[in-house]
Amino acid sequence: MTKEITVSTRVTEELATQIDQLSESLGRTRAWILHQALEAYVSNEYEFLQSVQQGFDDLAQGEIVDHAEVVTDYSRRRTAP
């Protein structure tokens, strides 16, 4: 089992109210809501950073697509039936 630690932060009254309303609607504790939110945020940020690093790696290997080519392809797809 993973060891848990307590993390605390300050939030606005408005955000605390929203968390409490969500907690009540879902029948979950405030702690559960905050844990889910933090887990999702951290996961998304890691995924974003990995994508950025992949882009840098691709660039370093010369695996790039010219901007004009991307715009042309996007325009073509947008107008295709």
Automatic annotation (TrEMBL):
<dbReference type="InterPro" id="IPR002145">
    <property type="entry name" value="CopG"/>
</dbReference>
<dbReference type="InterPro" id="IPR052991">
    <property type="entry name" value="Non-func_TypeII_TA_Antitoxin"/>
</dbReference>
<dbReference type="InterPro" id="IPR010985">
    <property type="entry name" value="Ribbon_hlx_hlx"/>
</dbReference>
<protein>
    <recommendedName>
        <fullName>Ribbon-helix-helix protein CopG domain-containing protein</fullName>
    </recommendedName>
</protein>
<dbReference type="GO" id="GO:0006355">
    <property type="term" value="P:regulation of DNA-templated transcription"/>
</dbReference>
<dbReference type="Pfam" id="PF01402">
    <property type="entry name" value="RHH_1"/>
</dbReference>
<feature type="domain" description="Ribbon-helix-helix protein CopG">
    <location>
        <begin position="7"/>
        <end position="42"/>
    </location>
</feature>
